[in-house]
Amino acid sequence: MKEGSKKIISALCYFSLFFAPFLFPIAVYFIADDNEVMEHAKKSFLSHILPIIAVPLGIIIIFETQYHPAAIVISALIFGTLTLIVMIWNIVKGIKVILS
C-alpha cells in the first residue's frame, strides 16, 4: 500500500465520525493489511464508542432523577463536553495523520 493511501485511509477513519462512525473503522480494520492503518482504525473506533456510551448514560441519569432540571443541565454539560472533546480529538488526529 502506498504511503499516501495509508495516510488518507487512516485519516478517514478519524473523520468517519461524521459520515460512518462505526462502519468505516471496522471495515478498514478487517480489510487493511498494514499494521499502522489497522492501529489508526482501532483507535478511531474506540473514540467513536465514547459518545455512544455517553448519550444513553446521560438519558439514564435524567430518567432516574425524574427529570430534575439540575440533572438535565449537569448531564448535558458533562456528556456534551465529552462528546465535543472526542469530536475535536478525532479532527486533530485526522489532520495529524495527513500532515505526518
UniProtKB/TrEMBL annotation:
It is a multi-pass membrane protein. Its main location: membrane. It comes from the Bacteria. InterPro entries: MamF_MmsF (IPR019109). The chain crosses the membrane at residues 12-32, 44-63, 70-92. Keywords: Membrane, Transmembrane, Transmembrane helix. Coiled coil: none annotated. This is DUF4870 domain-containing protein. It comes from Fictibacillus barbaricus.
